[in-house]
Write a structure and sequence with these properties.
The protein is α/β, with parallel strands linked by helices. Helices cover about 40% and strands about 20% of the residues. The protein has an 8-stranded mixed beta sheet with strand order 1-2-4-3-5-6-7-8, with helices on both faces. Pfam families: Abhydrolase_6.
């Protein structure tokens, strides 16, 4: 494994880890996650390193990566482009995104970042009445909590409104002091994912022009034991994209092991 730094277009330093050589596979974490909290990424990378150069990076504002204000979703497209160009050797990459990291990947592909194929795991999409939609002022409430020095309130808002945990379960998360401190430390970045989500959790059908420039193969994964609304969201994304295929991962919920992820990505690349 090699740790390194790339410089994004606005000068922000983005930290990454890389394994192996070959065509690049880039892993993007979802909301609140980064390299130190997702050991399954390293486990998958180690299994794929015999054929691929696997890159896992800390999104801006998390882990060892820096941040530069003001935030805009396009800054994270530039971060991904820098990772592909500098850490991946400039070759079009296979990009995999967990949860809202999958929406970032889709949005970046729509914006023209050089991506050869896309894989996403349970992107947060709310269509119909599978669950209550995300309130229209969600991002503004996150921003206000952080600006007013209430990072814990931002985390609670994310856990209840975005994740959908009952308030008592979200309060239980707070009892783990170490985990809660980590969540509060990256609270300013939760709104970043809220902006990447955009209208996809509104409960309305996906707009016809959403991701209409994506013409590369797309793999949409979901656990067959996941929450019904997450499976419904994955199906909605797969149905929306003409080049997409949908696969259920046996026995999994909102995540999977490095071994299962590595096998799914290897098969996806070889089939496409």
């Amino acid at each position: 494994m090699l740790d390194g730094i790339v410089q994004s277009a606005d000068g922000t330093r983005i930290a990454y880890s890389a394994w192996g050589d070959g065509d690049p596979i880039v892993i993007i974490d979802g909301a609140t996650a980064h390299r130190a909290t997702t050991p399954e990424n390293a486990a998958a990378a180690e299994r794929l390193a015999d054929e691929f150069r696997v890159i896992n990076y800390d999104r801006r504002g998390r882990g060892a990566s820096a941040d530069t204000a003001p935030y805009a979703p396009e800054r994270e497209f530039e971060d991904l482009a820098a990772v592909i160009a500098q850490a991946g050797g400039g070759r079009p990459a296979t990009v995999f995104g967990w949860s809202s990291g999958g929406l970032l990947a889709l949005n970046a592909a729509q914006a023209g970042v050089p991506i050869a194929r896309l894989a996403v795991f349970e992107p947060p999409v709310v269509v119909g009445d599978a669950r209550p939609p995300l309130r229209a002022d969600y991002v503004e409430r996150l921003d206000a909590a952080v600006a007013e020095g209430r990072p814990g309130d931002a985390v609670l808002l994310f856990l209840t409104d975005a994740v959908g945990l009952p308030p008592e379960m979200a309060a239980g998360v707070r009892e783990d002091a170490s985990m809660w401190a980590q969540l509060e430390a990256i609270a300013p970045t939760i709104a970043y994912d809220g902006r990447q989500v955009g209208e996809t959790m509104s409960g309305r059908p996906l707009r016809p022009d959403l991701w209409d420039a994506i013409d590369v193969p797309v793999l949409v994964l979901h656990g067959d034991a996941t929450w019904p609304q997450l499976a419904a969201g994955a199906r909605a994304v797969a149905d929306h994209l003409p080049t997409a295929m949908l696969r259920a991962v046996p026995g999994e919920n909102h995540g999977t092991s490095g071994e299962v992820l590595a096998a799914a990505l290897r098969d996806f690349v070889k089939e496409n």
